[in-house]
Write a structure and sequence with these properties.
Chain A is mostly helical. Helices cover 81% and strands 0% of the residues of chain A. Chain A has one domain: de novo design (two linked rop proteins) (Up-down Bundle), CATH 1.20.1440. Chain A contains seven helices and no strands. In chain A, helix 1 packs antiparallel against helix 2 and helix 2 packs antiparallel against helix 3. Chain A is rod-shaped, with a radius of gyration of 24 Å. Chain B has three domains: 353 residues, no CATH class; 60 residues, no CATH class; 45 residues, no CATH class. In chain B, the strands form six sheets. Chain B has a four-stranded mixed sheet with strand order 1-2-4-3, with helices on both faces. In chain B, strands 11-15-14 form a three-stranded mixed sheet, with no helix packed on it. Classes of the chains: A mainly alpha, B alpha+beta. The interface between A and B is medium-sized, with 22 and 21 residues.
Chain lengths: 185, 488
């Protein structure tokens, strides 16, 4: 009788420790996902801040491309206001498309391409776009790991007990479409 | 990624344990042998203690300032974002991709050879260094591949592991050397004196032979463990770089450029070799031998090139098996399950049209700026670069042969600062250290003897006193100020 009781308590203790371990792992993952998301946010904000500078720099050179520039500004303003993972992804896709069109047009302005100010802005924008890409990649990796943990046995029991929610992926439209905007004649 | 690091840690502990065992065994046997030679036994434990103390001291020194020593030994200089925005941006990108908590410090090595290394015990306190040659010859994607490889070394804690193993190897080599040398120079005499007077000559002889054999074998064994680990870590860092950048061709291209460039790194030594992206010593046809810190570059390139359309550790492992023709992989099993397969991204648009000459010039200019060169613009459009220790006050433009006045005062101020800083740790000096402070102070010169004596005026021009100079002041021809002379 005594031995059985002790064994029961030991078993309970082991289970409690095990549940705590899984719970902590889930919390750590969830925080990593949050952290990764804030990284994306930082980079998106940085791009939103860079775009007015870019427009200001190129305005003098590209007076005939008012529409392209206005499109960028519009897309940028919409992206600044967007909230939620899915909405933001949609707004950023639109902004990417507007910028892609702009990069195509830039090829026609050799003066602009020689402008030091523009070149350094372009490096900044390129890098910021890369950073968005890499932080998205990092965020999606972390989100995938959290989601796997939430779905897989045995951690799904603990996740269900404490109501862990799956993280949304941050997906932009695929890169090929973004690089070559459709041109219709 | 983190599970992978945890498993790495377990394996690393095992390696470190073997090394420590070799070290302590060596210490024990050598101590015992030396003690028996001197006539008393049971002193092996003292030898063991000595070995541990040697190791501890070396560890403390390394951990107190190891990364600084490494950076100083390689003549690396810290740069900021404005010095080379592209390099800095690429480092930031890889920091984000790897999820490092902080952007590593960025250093540039003043060398036209192509190489790079990472240092720092943990991700909070780390640095990456690249040579100026690398900046001049690689395009953005290739640079990204190299930086990703270095950042991978940091997140896999390779720097820490290789440092710990390196220290142990150093201690083992040191103890063996000292023992063998002491035997060579002084051992024989003593042993003859005591062996006949005491019993147990047999045991003493056995102990001695054991110690000698161990002293010869232990360094070789330690070296082999060290190098095998180093090579494995290179493969893992390559795979990791491919996964981080999603673009294995970047690193592959960079390695090709590095392999085809013959310039040798001036400031590399054996201790720092495993930290670099490619072996800084071996030339083109590096052997895959047991005594190499890096796998052969051609093999690394071939593996990266055959990864195919999607990157993951598993794809790298498969490519490795195909190239090496072995069934066992180079990567730890834990890495394989750690990540999902991801499609390879497309090349950066700048990759194709990068202007090589422009890039070369930029890298050179950045280096000169960091090294405090003075940029003197000529009317013909050429910018003449003057080193900080430039002494003449006039220079002819190499293109149009105009005679240009050098702003000596400015240059001297820079030069003086450079001189005082030369002895300190390398690093970026605070911009604009005021030359005015030095200019304002009245200059006074003490006569050291009755011979010729020259000194620098505050404006930077050199004044010379002849043996017959007997006045108590002299006027500088350049700035017109009077300088007091104290006659001896």
């Amino acid at each position: 009788m005594g031995i059985a009781l002790v064994a029961l308590f030991v078993l309970l203790g082991v289970i409690v420790v095990w549940v705590i371990g899984i719970f902590n792992g889930l919390v750590r993952l969830r925080n990593q996902v949050k952290n990764a998301w804030s990284q994306i946010d930082v980079q998106l904000k940085r791009r939103h801040d860079l775009i007015p500078n870019l427009i200001e720099t190129v305005k003098g050179y590209m007076s005939h491309e008012r529409e392209t520039l206005e499109n960028i500004t519009k897309a940028r303003n919409l992206a600044v206001q967007a909230s939620g993972v899915a909405n933001q992804a949609q707004a950023e896709t639109n902004l990417n498309r507007a910028l892609g069109q702009f990069y195509l047009v830039v090829e026609n302005y050799p003066d602009l391409k020689a402008n030091q100010n523009f070149l350094s802005l372009q490096e900044e924008l390129t890098s910021t776009e890369n950073k968005i890409g890499f932080s998205r990649q990092h965020y999606n990796d972390q989100a995938m790991r959290l989601n796997n943990k939430i779905e897989m046995f045995p951690s799904n029991i603990v996740a269900g007990m404490f109501n862990f929610k799956q993280a949304e992926f941050f997906e932009l439209e695929d890169e090929a479409e973004r690089a070559v905007p459709k041109v219709s004649f | 990624m983190w599970e992978q690091i945890r498993s790495n840690r377990r394996k690393s502990f095992f390696l470190v344990f073997i090394m420590a065992f070799v070290l302590m065994g060596l210490g024990y046997v050598v101590g015992e042998a030396l003690a028996r030679q001197a006539g008393f036994s049971g002193a092996g434990i003292i030898g063991l203690g000595v070995a541990l103390i040697v190791w501890l001291v070396m560890t403390l020194v390394t951990f107190a300032g190891g990364d600084k020593i490494l950076l100083a030994v390689s003549h690396a200089r810290r740069i900021e974002k404005q010095d080379h925005p592209q390099l800095y941006n690429v480092v930031e990108e890889m920091t984000i991709a790897a999820g490092l908590p902080k952007v590593p410090a960025v250093y540039v090595i003043d060398d036209m050879a192509l190489n790079a290394f990472a240092t720092g015990r943990n991700p909070d306190k780390c640095a990456v260094a690249v040579t100026a040659g690398l900046l001049a010859k690689l395009n953005r994607d290739q640079l990204q591949g190299v930086i990703a490889h270095e950042i991978s070394h940091i997140i896999n804690r390779d720097v820490l592991l290789m440092t710990v193993l390196g220290i142990m190897m150093g201690a083992i080599v040191m103890i063996s050397e000292i023992f063998l040398r002491s035997l060579w120079y002084g051992g024989g005499r003593r042993s003859r004196r005591y062996s006949s007077s005491r019993g147990g000559g047999q045991a003493q002889l056995v102990m001695m032979i054991l110690a000698v054999v161990l002293a010869i074998l232990a360094p070789i064994l330690a070296n082999l463990i060290y190098l095998a680990t180093s090579r494995k870590r290179e493969y893992l860092a390559d795979a990791n770089a491919a996964v981080l950048t999603r673009y294995p061709d970047g690193l592959a291209g960079a390695l090709e450029v590095i392999a085809h460039d013959g310039t040798k790194l001036a400031a590399a030594n054996r201790a720092t070799a495993p930290m670099y992206i490619a072996n800084p010593f071996k030339k083109l046809k590096a052997s895959a031998g047991l005594f190499s810190t890096h796998p052969p570059i051609e093999e690394r390139v071939r593996i990266l090139r055959t990864i195919g359309g999607s990157v993951s550790y598993a794809a790298y492992q498969q490519a490795w098996k195909n190239v090496a023709g072995k069934s066992a992989g180079a990567l730890p099993e834990s890495a394989l399950s750690a990540s999902e397969s991801q499609p390879v991204r497309t090349a950066h648009p700048d990759a194709a049209k990068a202007d090589k000459r422009q890039q070369m010039r930029q890298a050179g200019d950045m280096l000169r700026k960091v090294n405090e060169f003075f940029f003197l613009p000529c009317a013909c459009g050429l910018r003449i670069k003057l080193p900080p220790n430039f002494k003449k006050d006039h220079v002819a433009c190499p293109r149009c042969h105009r005679d240009l006045a050098v702003p000596v005062a400015q240059l001297a101020a820079i030069g003086a600062v450079a001189d005082t800083l030369a002895g300190e740790t390398p690093g970026r000096r605070a911009p604009g250290i005021p030359a005015a402070a030095a200019m304002a102070a009245p200059l006074e010169v003490a006569r050291t003897g009755s011979g010729w004596q020259s000194f620098k005026c505050n404006c930077g021009s050199t004044l010379t006193l002849s043996p017959s100079f007997s006045a108590n002041q002299i006027r500088c021809n350049q700035c017109g100020k009077t300088v007091r002379v104290k006659q001896a």
